[in-house]
Design goal:
Length: 678
């Protein structure tokens, strides 16, 4: 029974048990599944196999007395010559003068450190008298946070394996082991802690990674299935002809991608399942138009709809365009934090009476005081900005409404598969006809005079420009100071017929509103802004986007900003002012100038930044794996997903005895973590 607590392991007393608990290790199983974070390799290699600048272990005979030189208090450098395969190697050690007595001429030593191929020199980090330990050349290194000594920990793991090896049960059905040539669970765990050779560590990890990913995907697929089975009766019987009519009255034809997504969503509405769908599409690809249509469909089914967006500006903007669109089709209202008092009370009353068909707002939509008469469909824009609890609260308001999440941050496929594994995904991967790709340039700040002339030229043709200054995260004050300075600078340097506006986070909503409105009316031709314009602002007449300190933004964020222009059939431009220091930064700027496809950018961003940074740590909501890396192990992830789908779809867990272990494991997991559908 590996579920027993760690004190059942011989040699683990109360003190050690307590220490283990601080590492979240309570049971034997926890201990066995606490994997090393890396391995040190003390395998001696012949000189001709060593790689410059990498870690190496060599074995040889000391020739000549070590020489120690001191520089500064407690700082020393020891130099000794060692003969390895007829070659004299120079070994250097810092601040370890005491080693001198161990490294006397004629002694055999094993040295590990960084190898310098050009100087035939090794900078030693680890040495040992005598020959290398051929028994255990590969040493696992655990992140023990200095709670437990590594040797103590390893001893405990060793003893745990002695006692419980036979109790580690296989959970993958045999056919998987055979098909993918995977180690069995016992041996994999043993190899991970006590590797016999590097190849075996690799194989053991490969097995455990597959297990990790399969279990995760099974959980996701199971949740999805439960979700489908759970809700009956929310079939929204919308009125097809009315919907068609609504679409025909739009000022444009839907793109094929919009039509496809729309039909996927409408199918969800009509079906008894509760919709749990993500609509991905580049900025300007027409997601909001699709949202409007499905919210209307919901109205024709006798229900109310809600559109929840991250900022008040965006709520206002959507509200304006929805009021126009729905003039003859429904009653649209706005609810934000700044609507207060009597006005608010009346609004809430109308909502409860069912007089409001569509409610648009920010987080204000999910406060306790808000009650819908009959909430049918919820659209959440920029969904990754909302926390799990907010989604849950909103959902709890209705009678299990259909929910559509929209995002203009194209999520790379890898992430969509993992973090949204329990969602259906629709994708608008096509821009409305006639859009020209935005031309993007990367320049240094010294080019500013030319940029200003370019802006003037565009404005003389009747167009408008955005100038974005970076968000200085450490200090909102500096941030605003920056924006204000830039604003003044542009005011004085640009042609005095050009009006410049300023938008930043310190302005009141009213002030923001006024500036936005002036910009939308082309009373202001240049808008200097901090990243507040990032989300969703729609001014089709703007053709130039200038981003200061572009290297401080993520690719996806830059792409979002760029999406503020190019919203009509006029050629638009994006100018990135950046002086990145490192290679990655330069690479990112280069990618921006070459790619206008958001999905492609997202993939590249992910590759450069890693998944943890992709959405920003807090919001990532990404599952944490012990071994698997969703970028690197992408192929395994896809395989696991397909396998999980087959297992759930064919109901193997219920019906096939070979899947018994997997089934119990999953049941336990779902119960323990009390995973909710959100
Ligand atoms: P998103 O929400 O994906 O950023 P929007 O729905 O706001 O995109 O659409 C961006 C702009 O394109 C809006 O002005 C909208 O009216 C227009 N638009 C949407 N769909 C089409 C289409 N199929 N053809 C032409 N213009 C469209
Ligand atoms: Mg439904």
């Amino acid at each position: 029974m590996i579920e027993r607590s760690v004190d059942n392991i011989k040699g683990v007393g109360p003190a050690l048990q307590e220490q283990l608990e601080t590492l979240n290790i309570f049971t034997v199983e926890d201990l066995l599944f606490f994997f090393p974070s890396r391995y040190d390799n003390y395998q001696v290699k012949p000189l001709n196999e060593l790689i410059h600048d990498e870690k190496a272990t060599i074995e040889g005979e000391v020739i000549g007395e070590p020489i120690v030189t001191y520089y500064g208090p407690k700082k020393s450098r020891l130099t000794v010559h060692v003969q390895v395969e007829q070659v004299v190697i120079k070994a250097i050690m810092f601040n370890r003068a005491f080693a001198k007595k161990h490294l006397q001429p004629g002694e055999m030593v094993t040295l590990t450190g960084k190898w310098d191929q050009h100087r035939l020199q090794i900078t030693v980090t680890h040495y040992k008298k005598g020959q290398a330990n051929v028994e255990e050349p590969i040493q696992p290194v655990y992140s023990l946070k200095q709670v437990i000594k590594s040797t103590t920990f390893k001893k405990a793991v060793h003893q745990a394996l002695e006692q419980y090896y036979a109790d580690i049960v296989e959970i993958l059905p045999d056919e998987f082991l055979t098909e993918y040539k995977l180690l069995n669970r016992r041996d994999a765990i043993k190899e991970i802690h006590f590797p016999s050779e590097f190849e075996m560590v690799k194989q053991a990890k490969r097995r455990m990674i597959y297990e990790e990913l399969l279990l995760f995907q099974l959980k996701m697929q199971q949740l999805r299935k439960l979700n489908r089975e759970r809700t009956t009766g929310n079939s929204q019987q919308y009125h097809q002809e009315k919907v068609t009519n609504f679409i025909q009255l739009l000022p444009f034809e839907l793109t094929q991608a919009q039509q496809r997504s729309l039909s996927e969503i409408l199918t969800d509405l009509k079906s008894p399942y509760r919709m749990h769908r993500l609509l991905q599409g580049d900025v300007g690809s027409g997601k909001t138009a699709v949202a409007a249509i499905i919210l209307y469909a919901s109205i024709t089914a006798g229900n109310q709809g809600a559109l929840m967006v991250p900022t008040e500006i965006l709520a206002e903007q959507h509200y304006q365009s929805f009021v126009g669109l729905f003039a003859d089709f429904g009653n649209v209202e706005l609810l934000t934090g700044s609507i207060k008092g009597k006005k608010r009370k009346e609004s809430l009353q109308r909502l409860q009476n069912g007089q409001i068909d569509i409610l648009i707002g920010t987080h204000a939509l999910i406060q306790d005081e808000v009650h819908f008469a009959k909430l049918g469909t919820v659209v959440v824009d920029e969904q990754h900005r909302f926390g799990v609890n907010q989604r849950k609260a909103l959902r709890a308001k209705g009678m299990d409404p259909d929910v559509l999440f929209m995002t203009a941050t194209p999520i790379p496929r890898t992430l969509a598969i993992t973090s949204y594994g329990d969602m259906d995904v629709s994708q608008i991967d096509q821009m409305p006809i006639g859009r020209k790709p935005i031309e993007t340039f990367w320049v240094k700040e010294s080019m500013l005079p030319r940029i200003l002339r370019f802006i003037e030229k565009e404005i003389n043709q009747g167009h408008q420009a955005y100038v974005i200054c970076p968000l200085i995260e450490e200090s909102e004050k500096l941030d605003i100071q920056n924006a204000v300075e830039l604003y003044h600078q542009l005011q004085t340097t640009l042609d005095n017929k050009i009006n410049v506006g300023l938008l930043h986070g310190r302005l009141s909503n009213e002030e923001k509103e006024i500036v936005m409105q002036q910009y939308a009316n082309n009373e202001l031709q240049v808008l200097v802004a901090t990243t507040v314009v990032e989300v969703g602002v729609n001014v089709p007449n703007a053709t130039v986007m200038v981003v200061y300190d572009a290297e401080r933004f993520g690719l996806s964020q830059l792409h979002q900003l760029r999406g503020r222009v190019g919203r009509s059939d006029v050629q638009s431009y994006c100018i990135l002012i950046a002086d990145p220091k490192g290679d990655i930064g330069k690479e990112r700027m280069r990618i921006m100038t070459e790619t206008t496809n958001g999905f492609e950018l997202a993939e590249q961003d992910l590759e450069l930044r890693g998944p943890g940074d992709f959405f920003g740590k807090k919001q990532s909501g990404l599952p944490e794996f012990q071994l698997a890396d969703i970028v690197h192990d992408y192929r395994a992830l896809e395989t696991a997903r397909n396998d999980a789908q087959t297992i759930i779809y064919d109901e193997k867990l219920e019906n096939d005895p070979k899947y018994q272990a997997l089934k119990s494991y999953l049941e336990k997991e779902l119960m323990e973590k009390s995973t909710s559908l959100d």
